[in-house]
Amino acid sequence: MKKLNIGLIGAGFMAKAHSMAYATMPMFFHPAPAEAVRRTICDVTIESAKEAAERYGFEKYTTDWRDIVNDPEIDVIDIATPNDSHAEIAIAAAKAGKQIISEKPLARTTSEAKEMYDAVISSGVIHMVAFNYRRTPAVALAKKYISEGSIGKVLNFRGTYLQDWSADPNSPLSWRFKKDIAGSGALGDIATHSIDMARYLVGEIAEVSALSQTYIPERPIQSSGSDKLGTVKSNDNVPKGKVDVDDENLFLVKFENGAVGSIEATRNAWGRNNFLTFEIHGTLGSIYFDYEKRDELQVCFAKDGDDRRGFKTVFTGPNHPYGESLWPIPALGIGYGETKIIETYDFFKAIVDKTEVSPNFEDGYKIALICDAIAESSKTGLWTKTNCNNVK
Amino acid sequence: MKKLNIGLIGAGFMAKAHSMAYATMPMFFHPAPAEAVRRTICDVTIESAKEAAERYGFEKYTTDWRDIVNDPEIDVIDIATPNDSHAEIAIAAAKAGKQIISEKPLARTTSEAKEMYDAVISSGVIHMVAFNYRRTPAVALAKKYISEGSIGKVLNFRGTYLQDWSADPNSPLSWRFKKDIAGSGALGDIATHSIDMARYLVGEIAEVSALSQTYIPERPIQSSGSDKLGTVKSNDNVPKGKVDVDDENLFLVKFENGAVGSIEATRNAWGRNNFLTFEIHGTLGSIYFDYEKRDELQVCFAKDGDDRRGFKTVFTGPNHPYGESLWPIPALGIGYGETKIIETYDFFKAIVDKTEVSPNFEDGYKIALICDAIAESSKTGLWTKTNCNNVK
Amino acid sequence: MKKLNIGLIGAGFMAKAHSMAYATMPMFFHPAPAEAVRRTICDVTIESAKEAAERYGFEKYTTDWRDIVNDPEIDVIDIATPNDSHAEIAIAAAKAGKQIISEKPLARTTSEAKEMYDAVISSGVIHMVAFNYRRTPAVALAKKYISEGSIGKVLNFRGTYLQDWSADPNSPLSWRFKKDIAGSGALGDIATHSIDMARYLVGEIAEVSALSQTYIPERPIQSSGSDKLGTVKSNDNVPKGKVDVDDENLFLVKFENGAVGSIEATRNAWGRNNFLTFEIHGTLGSIYFDYEKRDELQVCFAKDGDDRRGFKTVFTGPNHPYGESLWPIPALGIGYGETKIIETYDFFKAIVDKTEVSPNFEDGYKIALICDAIAESSKTGLWTKTNCNNVK
Amino acid sequence: MKKLNIGLIGAGFMAKAHSMAYATMPMFFHPAPAEAVRRTICDVTIESAKEAAERYGFEKYTTDWRDIVNDPEIDVIDIATPNDSHAEIAIAAAKAGKQIISEKPLARTTSEAKEMYDAVISSGVIHMVAFNYRRTPAVALAKKYISEGSIGKVLNFRGTYLQDWSADPNSPLSWRFKKDIAGSGALGDIATHSIDMARYLVGEIAEVSALSQTYIPERPIQSSGSDKLGTVKSNDNVPKGKVDVDDENLFLVKFENGAVGSIEATRNAWGRNNFLTFEIHGTLGSIYFDYEKRDELQVCFAKDGDDRRGFKTVFTGPNHPYGESLWPIPALGIGYGETKIIETYDFFKAIVDKTEVSPNFEDGYKIALICDAIAESSKTGLWTKTNCNNVK
After folding, report:
1. Distance from C-alpha of B388 to C-alpha of B377, rounded to nearest angstrom
2. If one looks up domain D3-133 in CATH, what number appears?
């Protein structure tokens, strides 16, 4: 089997998820398009890099990502760093002719995203952005139902991504609350997943009308390097620093194809954990998905008899997308890992087949354009065009 | 016990609900503030009026609502007609010094609503508009939690009212699809209930950004007088007539107090029946309600321990608002009737105590202003002020 | 319209439910088979009887139920007293030629139930026992699906009736905890509803293996006359009295037709309010019902495609049993009252048509036999025949 | 880090799950107690064994499990074969001084299970039986709530394990339907998981009253070697063979500590996929779990205020058992793999610490005794003692 040498940059929680996928993808997808060799991992200090290499099964480690990008034996660059280094790394990697997968959002800004997109296009490498949730089998099943016409013409889309890990004012001021590193707050971090769902399932977004809020203007300054999200609380004596990103985004959407919709994303919704949902109404049916119950897709078909119509809960399994490769019975259980395993499979397949994969840097760039339009609209109060259809 | 003589104008499904409430409210609320005497009912033909009187237990019947308004023995005028006659009847009733309850929306247009509001103010009668859903005990419990501070400061509101009875293009062209009678489509018919919830639970709405859609531009012309909603389907040979109202409304909301939100209302959502929901996030907790499961309120309190925080399903019963007067065990079951029984109790109590009741014509008028802003915004694409705070 | 003069014996919460049904049934079912005239109500003291007459709209009141049974103008005797008086009243009513509806369970003991059954048979009156939950439209829809073969041959039944109003040791020692009045505890009070469901939907029960528990052996003695269920808590100084009935019943069931099942009933299940559920598996599908979400029936049809099979949530409305007579849109909301309104309709129809109605005293007697077998089995530990097929 | 050399016997779906766990456990639990070296895998043919070694990352492969048991470099024997070889392999492995984990049920019969148990006791090795579901974090959280007294004294337990993969009469006659290989049907395959939950959460089972059913007496004979569960359907021309195991088990349970309960297990429940549920009522609260929604535990605490009591949905995450080692946000998603990863961690920890782990062969043996009592009771109709308290 073909082997692909991986260089993984970043050693936070995403390193765990990606390493798990590299180690196990061929156990699920058999025969696998290629096998991952976990070659080198990079983290900020030599101690943490060494520890990450041991933990995640990498042969080598470094504190300088350039060591990886410049290593001729590396085939794939996996970017799992905070957002402020995505562009620099990706552009260097593209120039070095590496295949690239980057965590989302693609970049802090649209201009960064455009440079990244231009770089991969001119170098001709395979590129992917890790909006993994669309690889949940139930989401792929929604795509199948829509594509085959089972719910007719799509009329509207209603998406949410609600979490609560930043609802507590004492949850720390991690890099995710700093504009210079993250680019934006809930917008780039989680709204982008909803936008990816909307584009995947309905089509390109043409215009938005948005409003943004920052609910908690300052947070306790965090000890260096940690990215514990909201689960580590500070006491009141910790000095506070300024939050300069959004906590909440609410926006209306017009799709190119005439469908309409709304999306809300916030990390301040007590009781919602990873509440990535969508509801789609079509002329012949409806679909509802909630990632918190990710084994299930709910679907209503208009053509069912009047005495037996309703939302049906379909648990995904061997009869559904990717199902033959996963577990033999529905509800044995899709976890976060499986979304990354599928993502890795599709990425490797694209590399081996030399085809495009989606979502890629073009998608990541367009999503950045949409985020720009959202941020713009929330300032001006005007419907704002995304200009996605000007790309290419 | 004080008796109030009722004149009920209109004999459709609302007549059933209101008559049920008049007949049974004192069985639940004991002692009742007053007892209803079902005096006269009005419908369009003498046969249907006679039948309605028998069916709903009225002593007399007529085809001319003026007979009722002019009857000195009538205390209460109950307006349950299509929207195009609300204003004329209510204004006459106010002039005649009657207490008035009107079905929602208050009127077809803001100017009608304003005239109605002015009329009741100048005559000094008690007035109510029948947004009954806020009287669901679980909604009243949400109000209680918010008022007492259990979820902290309200940050945002997310409302939906989704139904599917008009999703089928063969569902008939009832008056609800005709602008000259209904005033608007889903906007007046159901979005107003969500708006009422938002105002009741969060506060006054200051501005909106909206979009509207008409999905099904023509429908089969209905045989006279029928108001069977979507349950009676036509065959393809029935001639079709034009729909000139909205099927869908999606809008962002800014409240006077700084909270934000979104609302969606459509009667074209396959699989949703009476999906009137709201989710409210506060600084100390969250609330979720779905009328399809109306015995339940879901609430998450931030102050619960980190190892046991989550949405809790509270079934309303004797320990909750209105509970002592309803059924002795939670989940014996609140139905549509109970919302009207409670509404009648609160209305009669206001009449007897000579106090205001909410929602009243002022609320109905302000909701009309908000609907105007929604319709305006969906045309201009601009954030539009509601001007509610200019009333009075 | 034919009028039926009602004598209602008992003025507790059931009086409210029955009176509501008498007052409003013809508003829903039109034309109604007959109209109820609320003639006389009976309660234990003259004050409470007078108050009940006013509250529930009865023309007369008495403290002696014999006044009602002996009143030649009374057509229908409605028995809504504690269980210890059902037999005496029903037998006298049957001898007086009255039509009879009795609250459940039919009696304290099988011998009482048999006497009651014999009495109505020999007098030829119409008789009904008020297991109202099977009249929930969603339950009637389950019956329809089963009868038409939509889920194939029924293999098994799994029922629960869980409440929590007696879970608190400080909830009072009402008559429901005293064997001489109630006959039994959770068994007669709520397990009988599950048994009624099982017999209605699957068939006659042949044998049982059971176990019973009394979790709370003594409770605070209640002030006279009150029947507030668990919602009124006593303080610790109130003297306690002995509970001599069961708190929990768990039993396995063999049906005459070969199906099997299990039923659990307890009023000590914290967090369950009126959790009357059943799950039925057939060769071609499954059905699930939970009364706490009584607008819904969940059904899975095997014949749905492998890529779209699952439990479907059907909200009952105009397209389902009794639906044309109830509310025009699903999920407007079925409450407890509607189950009693439907019950009254079916009872009156039987009276007018001179036909049998189900469940009747024969059913009530057979359920008493089954309860006897459960109690016997829980003592002996042996599978115990119900002898239901020896009746008649 | 200590390394443990693994010999995995069996290459079906369990080989995937176990291999995934071996490859990734140290990524989650850091520092891990030991690292797994995937040394040798065994399957029935040399081709399939070779393929399995490549797929699951094993260095060597064989068709003779004795090669593995006799290999002095192997530390751990992992038995993932059909049930008929568990005993022979485990006994040989114990004699060879290997640490042993066996898939469930431990054996086909109690006598086999006893021999296995005796063998590991006399050899002093660490032993575990792979009832992995109790390692779902939400189940571990249930255990924590019970242990700390949060729901008071446990009164009863209600378990189900419902699947539908064998509901279709055309699903193939795999070894799971043959008594000589499987030992029993749904009883050993899935009821044992419910029994494991009951013993883990409530305590030892003293007596049972049971009934068993075989719904589908013959099934299409399957082509050799395949174990595709119900997802591969045969056409009607395939010759059929006899099913000699149970399809359904329903039993009442008395625990040693006085609690009672019921359990149902069937693989013929259309619409249920992996519906492993339990509901536990205690004197101070209740717990409900459904593995199909395995990120969630539902819990009701009696001590919550009367106006806010109800079942709460707690999504497990970093604040719950094993949570620090899994994903950083609740509802990112626990899948089947995570249950095996945790199982492997606890097993390795026991090996390194030389302590016992649970469930082990003693538990597996006692569960076999309970299954014997169930089978016996379903034949005799009598309550049957399990004799678990005679073990040791």
Report:
1. 16
2. 3.40.50.720
Rounded Cα–Cα distance for residues D215 and D269 (Å): 11
Distance CA D207, CA A65 (A): 64
Indicate the residue of C141, C150, C308 with minimum beta-carbon distance to A312.
C308
* Residue A179 Cα, gap to closest chain C Cα (Å): 44
Residue ranges with strand state E in D267-356: 275-282, 285-290, 296-301, 311-315
Fold of A134-359+367-380: Dihydrodipicolinate Reductase; domain 2 (3.30.360)
- Six-digit token string for B234: 């036509």
Residues in chain D with CB shorter than 8 Å from the CB of C250 are 156, 252, 260-262
Q: How far off is chain A from C114, nearest CA to CA, in Å?
A: 40
Q: What is the distance, to the nearest Å, from the Cα of residue B310 to the centroid of all Cα atoms in its chain?
A: 31
Left if phi > 0, otherwise alpha if psi is -120 to 50, otherwise beta: which for C113?
alpha
Phi-psi region of D279 (alpha: psi -120 to 50; beta: other; left: phi over 0): beta
User: For position D231, what pLDDT does the model report?
Assistant: 47
User: Cα C81 from chain centroid?
Assistant: 13
CB–CB contact A309 B271 (8 Å) = yes
Domain B3-132 has CATH 3.40.50.720: yes
The pTM assigned to this predicted structure is: 0.97
Mean pLDDT, rounded, of chain C: 95
Q: Which helix (H) or strand (E) holds A371?
A: helix A361-380
Which residues have a Cβ under 8 Å from the Cβ of D205 and sit 6 or more positions away? D195, D198, D199, D253, D254, D255, D256, D370, D386, D388
Q: Do A312 and C310 touch (CB under 8 A)?
A: yes
Determine which of A183-187, A263-267, D238-242, D267-271 has the lowest per-residue pLDDT on average.
D238-242
Q: What is the residue extent of each domain of chain D?
A: 3-133, 134-359+367-380
The Cα–Cα gap between C77 and C89 comes to: 9
ipTM of the complex: 0.96
Six-digit token string for B35? 């007892």
For chain B of 392 residues, list the mean pLDDT of each consecutive stretch of 10. 96 96 98 98 97 98 98 98 97 98 97 98 98 98 98 98 96 94 96 98 98 96 61 69 97 98 98 98 98 98 96 98 96 97 98 98 98 97 96 82
Residues of D with Cβ-Cβ distance to C211 under 8 angstroms: 209, 252, 254, 260
Q: Chain centroid to CA B43: how far? A: 21
Cβ <8 Å between B319 and D312: no
CB contact under 8 A, B156 and A248: yes
Q: Where are the alpha helices (DSSP H) in chain D?
A: 13-28, 46-56, 65-69, 86-95, 110-123, 137-147, 179-182, 186, 192-201, 336-353, 361-380
pLDDT of A231 over the 50 cut: no
The pLDDT tens digits for C45-89 are 999 999 999 999 999 999 999 999 999 999 999 999 999 999 999
D283 and C215 within 8 Å at the Cβ level: the answer is yes
- pLDDT for position C1: 81
Contact B252/A251, CB-based, under 8 Å? yes
Stretch C229-243: mean pLDDT:
72
- Cross-chain Cβ contact A27/D165 below 8 Å: no
Chain D: residues touching C (Cβ < 8 Å)? 151, 155-156, 158, 160, 167-168, 209-211, 213, 215, 248, 250-252, 254, 260-262, 264, 266, 268-272, 279, 281-286, 288, 300-302, 309-311, 381-383
Residues 6+ apart with CB under 8 A from B237: none
Please name the member of B252, B266, B281 whose beta carbon is closest to the beta carbon of A209.
B252
Q: State pLDDT tens for residues C105-114.
A: 999 999 999 9
Taking alpha carbons only, the member of D81, D88, D90, D83 closest to residue D63 is: D81
Pairwise CA distance, residues C188 & A138, whole Å: 45
What's the CA gap between B298 and B311, in Å, rounded?
6
